[in-house]
Amino acid sequence: MHEYSITQSLVQAVEEELEARGLGAAVQEVHLKLGLFSGAVKGPVEFYYEMLTKEGRLAGSKLMIEETPLVLCCKNCQAEWASEEPVFRCGKCESQNIEITGGREMTVDKIVFDDEES
Ligand SMILES: [Zn+2]
What we know:
By secondary structure, the chain is α+β, with helices and mostly antiparallel strands. The protein has a domain at about 1-70 and about 100-115: hypothetical protein PF0899 fold (2-Layer Sandwich), CATH 3.30.2320.50. It is built from 2 helices and 6 strands, in the order H-E-H-E-E-E-E-E. It has helices at about 1-20, 40-50; strands spanning about 25-35, 60-70, 70-75, 80-85, 100, 105-115. The protein has a 3-stranded mixed sheet, with helices on one face. A hairpin with a 5-residue loop joins strand 3 and strand 4. The radius of gyration is 18 Å and the shape is elongated. The chain starts with a helix and ends in a 5-residue tail after the last strand. Zinc ion binds near residues 74, 76 and 92.
C-alpha cells in the first residue's frame, strides 16, 4: 500500500496546483516522470491513480508515466552514466566515490487539458 499514499499525495498536489492557478478546464492527461529509484512502481501508481480520480477535479484524466533511469555520477572523474541498477564503481577510473544524480525523482512533467491541441 506504499504506492497508495504516494499516488494520493500526487493527486492532491495536482489538484492544489490547478486550484492555485485557477485553471478550470478538464484535465485530459497528467504526465509524470518517475525515477526507477523513486521507491514507487509504475503499475500500482497507475492503478491507484485511476481509483483516486474516479471523482473530483481529475475525473476521467489519464496518468502518463515516463520512467527515468538511475543516473550515477563519479565524483572522481565526473563521468556520468545511466544504469538499470546501482553499480557503485566507476567504469572509467574505478573509483567508488559515486553519487546518485537522477532516478529518484517523481515530478509532474506537464498537464494536458481537454481544450488543448496536442
Ligand atoms: Zn570515475
